[in-house]
């Protein structure tokens, strides 16, 4: 059944993610309260949009004081489903996969990077930082045993569909698809998010053309 939150657009969810970063930064500086105008300066969004986004979830600031940072972080984490750590694996330990595993910015308390998988026997058993590369043959057993909920896909495009169809939706609930194959937002009851860096370049190219013409 569709509930209120299902109707919230992805754009709003992305903004909540931005607010969370901004709040954590303010907290790290020792701040306890924050006004929407401060979030606005950090995120480059109008204060009215921020207040409206938060009000959609029943979150309101205190008049003249703003929001309590700790409480707001807790609320946004709950909305984003970050109040429970999720186990993650990566499939395809090539150049992009290796870069993602090495990237510290993706590692935080909410996502536990458990392992990488590959079908190249030269890579199996090797480590990328603290992450071990396992054979693809062990994938489904591993997913079941370690309760893996999210898969990052960095295999060649030709392998994408085959791998997605092999994942057990009883355990895997989300896929971040970095291949150039465009997958639907949901397949086999698994949520999919496509991340295509080439596409992002095309979008920025369009924006530049529009601005400069
Ligand atoms: P490299 O040249 O080191 O393999 P790459 O990023 O250029 O890196 P790609 O051809 O894009 O290589 O493949 C990405 C990774 O996916 C490689 O490590 C490859 O061995 C792995 N791979 C290919 N097919 C599969 C598969 N079916 N299952 C798991 N991993 C796979």
Account of the 3D structure:
It is a single chain. It contains eight helices and ten strands. The chain is an alpha/beta fold. The chain has an eight-stranded mixed β-sheet with strand order 5-6-4-3-7-8-10-9. The chain has a two-stranded antiparallel sheet with strand order 1-2. Helix 1 runs antiparallel to helix 4 (69-79). The chain is globular and about 60 Å long. The model is unreliable at 1-5 (pLDDT under 50). Bound molecules: adenosine-5'-triphosphate.
Provide a brief overview of the structure.
By secondary structure, the protein is an alpha/beta fold. The chain has helices at 10-28, 36-43, 47-55, 69-79, 95-102, 139-145, 160-166, 197-212; strands at 33-34, 67-68, 86-91, 111-118, 127-128, 131-135, 148-153, 174-177, 186-187, 190-194. The longest helix has 19 residues, at 10-28.
Key structural traits:
single chain, 213 residues, alpha/beta, Arc Repressor Mutant, subunit A, Rossmann fold, 2 domains, eight-stranded mixed beta sheet, two-stranded antiparallel sheet, 10 strands, 40% helix, 20% strand, globular, binds adenosine-5'-triphosphate
How would you summarize the topology of this molecule?
Elements: H1 10-28, E1 33-34, H2 36-43, H3 47-55, E2 67-68, H4 69-79, E3 86-91, H5 95-102, E4 111-118, E5 127-128, E6 131-135, H6 139-145, E7 148-153, H7 160-166, E8 174-177, E9 186-187, E10 190-194, H8 197-212
Parallel strand pairs: 3-4, 3-7, 4-6, 7-8, 8-10
Antiparallel strand pairs: 1-2, 5-6, 9-10
Helix pairs in contact: 1-4, 2-3
Bound molecules: adenosine-5'-triphosphate.
Adenosine-5'-triphosphate (ATP) binds at residues 91-97, 117-120, 123, 136, 154-156, 159.
């Amino acid at each position: 059944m569709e509930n209120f939150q299902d109707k919230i657009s992805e754009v709003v969810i992305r903004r909540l993610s931005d607010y969370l970063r901004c709040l954590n930064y303010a907290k790290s500086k020792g701040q306890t309260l924050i006004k929407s105008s401060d979030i606005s300066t950090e995120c480059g969004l109008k204060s009215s949009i921020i207040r409206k986004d938060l009000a959609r979830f029943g979150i309101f600031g205190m008049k003249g004081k703003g929001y309590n940072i700790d409480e707001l972080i807790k609320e946004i984490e709950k909305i984003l489903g970050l109040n429970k750590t999720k186990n993650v694996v990566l499939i395809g330990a090539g150049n992009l996969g290796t870069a993602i595993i090495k990237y510290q910015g993706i590692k935080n308390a909410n996502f536990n990077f458990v392992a990488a998988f590959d079908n190249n026997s030269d890579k199996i058993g090797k480590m990328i930082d603290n992450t071990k590369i396992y054979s693809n043959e062990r994938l489904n057993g591993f997913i079941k045993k370690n309760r893996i909920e999210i898969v990052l896909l960095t295999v060649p495009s030709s392998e994408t569909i085959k791998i997605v169809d092999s994942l057990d939706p009883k355990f895997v609930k989300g896929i971040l698809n970095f291949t150039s194959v465009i997958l639907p937002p949901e397949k086999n009851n698994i949520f999919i998010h496509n991340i295509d860096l080439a596409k992002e370049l095309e979008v920025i190219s369009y924006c530049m053309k529009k601005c400069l013409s």
